[in-house]
């Protein structure tokens, strides 16, 4: 320890003049004692910071593919033994260029590097501060069968860019949407949802933007049904996902696969005569809250502004409008599945319920998913019949985002309510009570989706070795209802119309028929794989809407537009 550091500090008298006036000699002695204590505290703090800095070393480096030298973004890097040594796991992930930076305790000497599709690697640090790491592909995975479009293929034979993530590699924790299972798991796949709104849609981009002005989202295919929605499948029902990245992998889907394809395979029952019936339940409860909010003036700080030469409008109250429009949000989910089977038939039935609250008061959604997967084999396993049925109902309470804007800018000395119980209304342009907006507006979205698919596959190997064929039919119907209502006492929307309400209903029907013939065979060192088929898909959409204003009463909201006198 270098004691010369103390010369850089000077400690003024710690007692005020009024206190020292009581006893000059006593206060002087007390000041010297306090100064000595403060100096000792500074010495201890400096020593602790020196010790902490000396106990850790910063390690930088790059993680690359051993085969072609390309960077590996999103690779996990942890320090082996860190959970036992310091009570938590020390780790980081690589950026887009495969680079990383990590502070490692001196008493730990091994880095553990892992990523999907690569062998987990352990690297000795041995006092180095820069470590470049090469990951080798996990060749044990090459014998796996990967779903690619209208068939399957051995991973070792795939020449296009395909990433496969199974249930064992999915993200864990508070997962309410299927998209979250893949976040950070596949190189080049970006899945984001800014903010904490549980009703906001995810943005999915696969290797950047492939087109401008058209659909930029990858095509979602669930159990062979293209154009499906992630909302129609519960995260607990997903067995695996394959991400087809490049044009050659997604070409079989035509222009719809221009932005990539994500294939989703749901769980099915086990084919075994001795397994019996398996019942599984999974439930969880979680809490969300505002961890870092905008800094706004309190009423007391606002009232002190005249001292700075700023005129204010003091309305006599003290209100934290952020607190008025936010809440501790609770989420609960429950999942129950029953599966079983025998030598010929396997089945799995599942039901999932989720209730998700938003941090904005009154916002959130609840969703009910039910699914039946059935597989039957006959004719000495040459014929395989597969049936899938799923039902999804979702109710959303949409919170208006403008509430947070006005909670930030509204006068903190304004009350929420007037003396007569009505909402306080401010004067001026673009100046609205955020609590009134939240309480006097309604934005509901209700949706239901029914999907049914049947597939028959037959193995013609008795006639031609390696030949098989299938017929697939799916039908998906969906209904959407949107209702909005803004009270006549709210001047935020529908100003001058004495209230505003709207209803909109949309429905859709998709039908798909596919027939395919697959041929897979080997002739010595030559493997032959081919697929031929025909696909017919029909889309039908219809909808209607109505809007009305000038309501005589708020009683019925958007449920009775006959109360509107202005259409």
Question: How is this structure best described in words?
Answer:
It is globular and about 90 Å long. The N and C termini lie far apart (82 Å). Residues 1-27, 40-54 and 83-88 have low confidence and may be disordered. The chain is 12% helix and 41% strand. It has helices spanning 17-20, 24-55, 82-86, 247-250, 299-303, 321-325, 402-409, 434-440, and strands spanning 56-65, 76-79, 91-93, 99-105, 110-114, 121-124, 133-135, 145-147, 152-154, 162-166, 189-192, 203-206, 219-222, 225-226, 238-244, 261-266, 277-288, 329-341, 345-357, 364-378, 383-397, 441-459, 467-486, 500-523, 526-551, 564-566. The chain has eight helices and 26 strands. α7 (402-409) packs antiparallel against α8. A ten-stranded antiparallel beta sheet has the order 17-18-19-20-21-22-23-24-25-26. The chain has a five-stranded mixed beta sheet with strand order 10-15-16-13-14. A four-stranded antiparallel beta sheet has the order 3-2-5-6, with no helix packed on it. It is mainly beta and 567 residues long.
DSSP helix fraction: 10-25%
Q: Mean pLDDT score, rounded?
A: 82
Radius of gyration: 32 Å
Oligomer: single chain
Assign an overall shape: globular
Outline the low-pLDDT stretches.
1-27, 40-54, 83-88
Spatial order of the strands forming the largest sheet: 17-18-19-20-21-22-23-24-25-26
């Amino acid at each position: 320890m270098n004691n010369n550091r103390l010369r850089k500090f000077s400690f003024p008298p710690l007692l005020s003049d009024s206190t020292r006036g009581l006893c000059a000699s006593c206060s002087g002695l007390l000041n010297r004692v306090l100064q000595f204590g403060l100096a000792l505290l500074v010495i201890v703090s400096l020593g602790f910071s020196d010790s902490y800095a000396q106990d850790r070393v910063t390690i930088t480096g790059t993680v690359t593919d051993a085969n072609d030298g390309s960077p590996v973004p999103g690779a996990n890097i942890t320090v082996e033994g860190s959970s036992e040594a310091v009570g938590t796991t020390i780790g980081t992930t690589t950026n887009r260029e495969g680079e990383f930076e990590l502070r490692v305790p001196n008493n730990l000497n091994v880095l553990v590097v892992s990523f999907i599709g690569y062998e987990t690697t352990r690297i000795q640090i041995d006092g180095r501060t820069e470590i470049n790491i090469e990951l080798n592909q996990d060749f044990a995975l090459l014998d796996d069968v990967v779903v690619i479009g209208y068939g399957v293929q051995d991973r070792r034979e795939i020449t296009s860019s395909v990433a496969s993530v199974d249930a064992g590699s999915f993200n864990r924790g508070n997962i309410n949407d299927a998209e979250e299972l893949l976040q950070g798991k596949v190189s080049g796949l970006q899945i984001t949802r800014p903010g904490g709104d549980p009703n906001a849609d995810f943005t999915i981009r696969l290797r950047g933007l492939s087109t401008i002005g058209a659909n930029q989202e990858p095509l979602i295919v669930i159990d062979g049904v293209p154009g499906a929605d992630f909302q129609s499948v519960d995260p607990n029902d997903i067995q695996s996902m394959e991400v087809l990245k490049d044009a050659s992998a997604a070409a079989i889907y035509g222009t719809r696969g221009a932005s990539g394809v994500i294939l989703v395979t749901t769980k099915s029952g086990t084919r075994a005569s001795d397994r019996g019936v398996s019942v599984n339940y999974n439930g969880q409860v979680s809490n969300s809250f505002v961890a870092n909010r905008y800094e706004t003036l309190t009423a007391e700080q606002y009232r002190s502004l005249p001292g700075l030469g700023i005129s204010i409008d003091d309305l006599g109250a003290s209100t934290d409008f952020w607190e008025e429009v936010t809440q501790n949000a609770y989420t609960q989910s429950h999942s129950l599945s029953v599966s079983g089977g025998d030598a010929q038939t396997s089945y799995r039935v599942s039901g999932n319920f989720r209730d998700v609250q938003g941090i904005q008061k009154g916002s959130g959604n609840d969703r009910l998913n039910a699914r039946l997967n059935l597989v039957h084999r006959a004719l000495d396993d040459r014929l395989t019949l597969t049936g899938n049925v799923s039902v999804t109902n979702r109710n959303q309470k949409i919170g208006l985002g403008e509430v947070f804007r006005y909670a930030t800018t509204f006068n903190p000395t304004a009350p929420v309510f007037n003396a007569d119980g009505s909402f306080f209304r401010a004067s001026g342009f673009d100046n609205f009570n955020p609590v009134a907006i939240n309480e006097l507006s309604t934005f509901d979205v209700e949706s239901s989706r029914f999907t049914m698919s049947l597939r028959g596959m037959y193995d013609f190997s008795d006639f031609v070795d390696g030949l098989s064929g299938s017929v697939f039919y799916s039908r998906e119907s969906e209904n959407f209802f949107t209702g909005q209502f803004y009270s006549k006492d709210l001047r935020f929307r529908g100003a001058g119309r004495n209230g505003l309400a709207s209803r909109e209903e949309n429905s859709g029907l998709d039908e798909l028929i596919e027939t395919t013939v697959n041929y897979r065979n080997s002739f010595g060192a030559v493997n032959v794989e081919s697929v031929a088929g025909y696909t017919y898909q029909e889309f039908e959409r219809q909808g209607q809407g109505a809007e009305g204003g000038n309501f005589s009463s708020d009683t019925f909201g958007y449920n009775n537009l006959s109360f509107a006198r202005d259409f």
